[in-house]
Design a protein that fits this description.
Keywords: Calcium, Cell adhesion, Disulfide bond, Glycoprotein, Integrin, Membrane, Metal-binding, Receptor, Repeat, Signal, Transmembrane, Transmembrane helix. Residues 161-332 form the VWFA domain. Pfam families: FG-GAP, Integrin_A_Ig_1, Integrin_A_Ig_2, ITGAX-like_Ig_3, VWA. Residues 1-31 form the signal peptide. The chain is elongated and about 225 Å long. Helices cover 11% and strands 44% of the residues. The chain is built from 14 helices and 65 strands. It has five domains: 35-151 and 350-614, Integrin alpha, N-terminal (Methylamine Dehydrogenase, Chain H); 160-332, von Willebrand factor, type A domain (Rossmann fold, 3-Layer(aba) Sandwich); 617-760, Sandwich (Immunoglobulin-like); 777-910, Immunoglobulin-like (Sandwich); 914-1067, Sandwich (Immunoglobulin-like), CATH 2.60.40. The protein is mainly beta. Strands 47, 49, 51, 52, 54, 55 and 64 form a seven-stranded mixed beta sheet that branches. A six-stranded mixed beta sheet has the order 12-11-10-13-14-15, sandwiched between helices. A five-stranded mixed beta sheet has the order 40-42-38-37-44, with no helix packed on it.
């Protein structure tokens, strides 16, 4: 039994009480088989809350829907019986009281009876309001036959022993003393018909009993009171109170009742003149003795108030003189009268005064069990009621461990497992987290077996309960517990359903379900008779505050109760019952209401109900087949771009009904069929449209009828296809499209396998025994004599692969090479149809590359030459003198292992770029001599040695210097490397020249003139010159087998010309002598002429 209302402990207003009523609540879904397109609706009045509760019934052969409207008639409440087609609803007649409220809030149905309750049946007892409940019982004709009021609190009066303790001190006049006695007499007369017994005591310095309870009982009290004389002494108040306790209230001989409520009325006009030696006021409090104090005249009210019981200000009265006692009669009379029924006075918890029985109700064999949330000071209880009318009998069922304000009985369900009845009751406020208690019956007594505690404060765990017999064998398998106020922030959720597996002794939680972000999910829960024909009961869960309300339908599961893998069907209010609020506040789904042998669901909202019919569920099995049995290879030829019909595909369906519907319902399914060819490939080899090779997918709607049906499709392929070995994998997926018009309401079973695959193989031809063995033969050679290591340098290998055996499948060539080079290209040469595909590297390896050859098949009798181009990537690597390479060939069916691995080596040379040159601007390359200046003169040559490459290497420098000519001699003086320790005369020692580095060498020599005698005896009138040229050569020396000089405009050899000039000037003596002789001859000639 599900409850959707909070409980109130007061009875102030209509809406405040109902809920305490209304405890309401949304989500997501995929369609199962509940028909939301053709709902049957009946609208009541939202103000009456028609639809608050709904029940499917069948009395005799008449199927009906019982509906509660607890707010109708100024919240009196009514119940209605609606026809199965919801064409009309008739109000149930009940003999009722106008004081009944919220009738129809809870009900229970059996095969022949209906019990409907009102948990709000107030009645007055001497000015005090009690709130109980009343339940009405109806027969199979829905005629009210009786009612009962479980946990009903009768108006009772408890025995009260009251003592008047009046002051007799000397401060009181005689007339005041008489007024005091008349006041006591008037009180006793007005309360003479009550259960109160009186006694009176006068106190002054001494204390005296005027009359005791026995005197009041035998009628002599008034006579003794009027004869009592005034003591006229001091005011010993504490002593007097102690006297009253000892001699009257706690003395059976005085006529006192030990179980009666005790009270004292103290009347005094003076302050206490004695000390509290016996701690008498604490004793009064411990014994729960009520004390009313009347102060007269000039008294200390603060001190006097301390004599009263709590609340002290309310129990203390003041008058100016004794004449004011008359005005206190009515006030004091009311307080004394209320002692009979006051909780505070009685000092005990409320038992049944606010029981609100009937908050939940279930049938148990010949009895009815009702929940009473307010019993025992709101701890709550259950009452098992047998019989009917005034002769009914009730047995209280309680959980002693439940605390106050727990609301046990808020929800109640009854089940059975292995012959043992299981009674569950929810207490949603127990320990603030909620509690569910399991009772089992042993020798006609219900006892607590176990409890389940909620996990979150304020979640209202246990507000809704239901039992699920998932396999319909009569044993309850799962307990469903709703906690509609459960809150979860991430991901956001409001409301939670807990699913527990059951045994006779314990619970075990198997599943938590939350669907709604708002809406109080699981405010209502109902088990449903099998909806989809899988033989398992299903579950409906309401979230009435999610928008206008939502109901979720879950399929049953043997292990978890609810199938956790399937998205539930989500039924929002707007789709079936628009315009109303709190859709899903009530649920019922255990019957077929329209005789089609399918379960129907009734859902209530605020102001209406809707009947949703189940639809037939069709189970579909599919299979794919093809013809011919393999794809012939005879149609394939490369190159070729036209298409041909490779094979035909057939899709067949077998449709059977999983449910067992009857009637004239059409059971056809409109199915969207999706076919995909070669689904594992990015580029499909097969297609549906011969004019469009990209049409690898086909979508088509087909109509499936009950029985067996097939559909055919042609699959096309291009004549030139790379892979003619791997089979074509075809996938078919189907799903139901829109529901067909007319009477076709069938739906596809969610358990049907909606995806099928088939693989279409290619023709397989081998030489013998259907066992294909390839015979791979591999060889390769280097096209370069050496490997010259240079940045981005290339070298090539020539690879030969032959297959004289059967077709080779998944053939590959693996190239193993040292680090520092990488494969750049690997292609077949000449005119060949063989294709190769090489990965970057194998698993990030830097020394291996695998090339796939003509995947998937390298045909028998094929011989292919490949040219592999490698690129140097690490020229500064530590290279050995030889580079070794290994190439292997592999396939899935290769039978020749001896000719598939070849190793070759090639010498390695490093490319270097060296240069040697003369630094002309810093060198002396010209000398001049004469006979007078024969030297020696210094000769200075500076050479620059450069490494322009990226590789350092050991080098040496040698110079060739001609020492002399017939007339000039060069004497080396020094030969050194600048800024370095290497030096030598004509060849320096070997040194390491780093990459991108420069070294300088300095050659110093002396040049001198020699053998000049032949020039000394020569006399000439002209200048004599002679030039001598010395060719000085410089050369870089390195290991040419390891290093290879590249041409970059520079050279590792340099030749320098040193020019020496010898100059002999004209002979001055010859010129002088010749001049002198000539002058002399001229003079002689002149003289001769003169002499003539």
């Amino acid at each position: 039994m599900n409850r959707k209302m909070f409980v109130t402990q007061t009875s102030s207003s209509r809406m405040e009480t109902l809920g305490l009523i209304l405890f309401m609540w949304a989500s997501l879904s995929e369609a199962f088989n509940i028909d939301t397109e053709h709902p049957l609706r009946f609208n009541g009045t939202p103000e009456d809350f028609f639809g608050y509760s709904v029940y499917q019934t069948e009395f005799g052969n008449r199927k009906q829907i019982i509906v509660g409207a607890p707010l109708e008639g100024n919240s009196t409440g009514e119940m209605y019986s609606c026809t199965a087609d919801l064409q009309s609803c008739q109000q149930l007649q009940r003999p009722g009281s106008e004081s009944v409220r919220f009738f129809g809030m809870s009900s229970a149905v059996s095969s022949a009876a209906l019990t409907s309750c009102s948990p709000y049946f107030p009645h007055e007892c001497d000015g005090n309001s009690y709130l109980n409940g009343v339940c009405y019982q109806f027969n199979s004709s829905l005629q009210a036959i009786s009612n009962f009021t479980a946990a009903y609190q009768e108006c009772t009066k408890r025995e009260v022993n009251l003592v008047f303790l009046f002051d007799g001190s000397s401060s009181m006049k005689t007339v005041d003393f008489e007024m005091n006695k008349n006041f006591i007499k008037d009180i006793m007369k007005k309360l003479s018909n009550s259960s109160i017994k009186f006694a009176a005591v006068q106190f002054s310095t001494v204390v005296r009993t005027v009359f005791d309870f026995n005197d009041y009982q035998n009628g002599s009290a008034e006579e003794k009171l009027m004869k009592e004389r005034h003591m006229k002494s001091l005011t010993s108040t504490h002593k007097a109170i102690y006297y009253v306790l000892k001699n009257l209230l706690n003395s059976v001989s005085s006529g006192a009742d030990p179980n009666a409520q005790k009270a004292v009325v103290i009347i005094t006009d003076g302050d206490p003149s004695d000390n509290e030696d016996h701690n008498v006021l604490n004793t009064c409090d411990e014994q729960n003795i009520l004390r009313y104090v009347i102060g007269v005249g000039k008294v200390d009210l603060i001190e006097l108030t301390q004599l009263a019981s709590e609340p002290k200000p309310d129990n203390t009265f003041y008058i100016q003189d004794y004449s004011g006692l008359k005005g206190l009669v009515d006030n004091l009379q009311k307080k004394i009268y209320n002692i009979e029924v006051s909780k505070d006075a009685q000092g005990r918890d409320r038992q049944k005064e606010l029981s609100q029985s009937g908050f939940s109700v279930v049938y148990h064999e010949e009895s009815v069990i009702v929940g009473s949330v307010g019993s025992n000071d709101w701890r709550g209880a259950l009452y098992e009621v047998t019989g009917s009318g005034p002769e009914f009998r009730q047995t209280e069922i309680i959980d002693p461990a439940v605390n106050k304000d727990s609301y046990m009985g808020y929800s109640t369900v009854l089940g059975m497992r292995r012959g043992v009845y299981l009674l569950f009751s929810g207490a949603p406020r127990a320990e603030h987290t909620g509690l569910v208690t399991l009772f089992t019956k042993n020798q006609n007594t219900w006892t607590v077996t176990s409890n389940i505690n909620g996990e979150q404060i304020g979640s209202y765990f246990g507000a809704s309960l239901n039992l699920l017999d998932v396999d319909s064998d009569g044993d309850s398998d799962f307990l469903l517990v709703g906690a509609p106020l459960f809150y979860q922030s991430q991901p956001r959720a409001e409301g939670r359903l807990y699913v527990y597996t059951l045994s006779e002794q314990y619970f075990q939680r198997t599943l938590n379900v939350s669907e709604s972000t708002t809406g109080r999910f699981a405010a209502s829960v109902a088990s449903l008779k099998d909806l989809n024909g899988d033989g398992l009961s299903d579950v409906a869960v309401g979230a009435p505050l999610e928008n206008e309300g939502v109901v979720y339908i879950y399929l049953g599961d043997r292990t978890h109760g609810i199938n956790p893998e399937l998205t539930p069907q989500r039924i929002p209010a707007r789709s079936v019952l628009p315009g109303l609020q709190q859709f899903g506040v009530s649920l019922s789904g255990q019957m077929d209401m329209n005789d089609d042998n399918l379960t129907d669901i009734v859902i209530g909202a605020q102001g209406g109900i809707v009947l949703l019919k189940a639809r037939p569920v069709m189970s579909v099995s599919a299979q794919l087949s093809f013809s011919p049995k393999e794809i012939s290879l005879n149609y394939f030829e490369c190159p070729g771009s036209n298409a041909f019909n490779a094979f035909n595909l057939t899709s067949c369906f077998t449709v059977t009904e999983r449910t067992s519907s009857t009637g004239s319902l059409e059971k056809k399914l409109n199915v969207s069929l999706n076919l995909n060819v070669d689904v594992v490939r990015g580029m499909s080899r097969g297609f549906f449209d011969p004019m469009d090779s990209s049409s690898s997918s086909l979508q088509q709607s087909v109509l499936l009828d009950s029985g067996f049906s097939c559909f055919n499709f042609s699959i096309f392929m291009l004549r030139c296809v790379a892979d003619t070995v791997s089979p074509l994998k075809i996938r078919m997926h189907f799903s139901q499209t829109e529901i067909l018009s007319g009477n076709s309401v069938a739906v596809l079973d969610v358990h049907s396998r909606t995806e099928e695959y088939v693989e279409v193989p290619f023709q397989w031809s081998c030489n013998s025994n259907n066992s294909c063995v390839a015979d791979l033969k591999l060889n390769f050679s280097f096209t370069n004599d050496t490997l010259v290591v240079e940045n981005q340098a290339h070298f090539t290998v020539l690879v030969l692969l032959a297959n004289p055996g059967d077709d080779s499948y998944n053939t590959s060539i693996v190239l193993h090479y040292p680090e520092g080079i990488s494969l750049s290209k690997f292609n077949a040469i000449k005119l060949s149809q063989t294709r190769s595909s090489c990965g970057d590297r194998d698993s990030s390896a830097t020394n291996r590359t695998t090339c796939r050859i003509n995947l998937p098949v390298y045909r028998s009798g094929t011989t292919t030459q490949f040219l592999g181009t490698f690129r140097v990537t690490k020229w500064d690597n530590e290279w050995s003198d030889w580079m070794e390479m290994m190439i292997t060939a592999n396939s899935d069916n290769n039978g020749n292992m001896s000719d598939t691995e070849v190793r070759r080596s090639v010498p390695v040379q490093f490319a270097v770029d060296l240069a040697i040159s003369l630094v002309a601007e810093d060198s002396v390359t010209y000398l001049n001599f004469s006979l007078e200046d024969r030297g020696p003169k210094p000769l200075n040559l500076i050479y620059k040695v450069e490494n322009l490459g990226v590789k350092g290497l050991p080098v040496s420098v040698s110079l060739t210097l001609p020492c002399q000519t017939p007339h000039v001699i060069l004497t080396p003086h020094n030969f050194s490397m600048q800024e370095d320790s290497h030096c030598g005369k004509f060849e320096c020692h070997q040194f390491h020249l780093q990459k991108y580095s420069v070294a300088h060498f300095n050659l110093m020599a002396h040049a001198a003139l020699q053998n000049v005698k032949e020039f000394k005896s020569k006399y000439s009138f002209y200048e004599f010159r002679r030039d001598y040229v010395f060719n000085i050569s410089s050369e870089l020396n390195f290991n040419t087998s390891r290093y290879n000089q590249i041409a970059s405009g520079c050279d590792d050899f340099s030749q320098t010309e040193v020019k020496v000039e010898f100059v002999v000037p004209p002979s001055l003596m010859l010129i002088v002598c010749t001049g002198a002789v000539g002058g002399l001859l001229l003079l002689i000639i002149i003289l001769f002429l003169l002499l003539k």
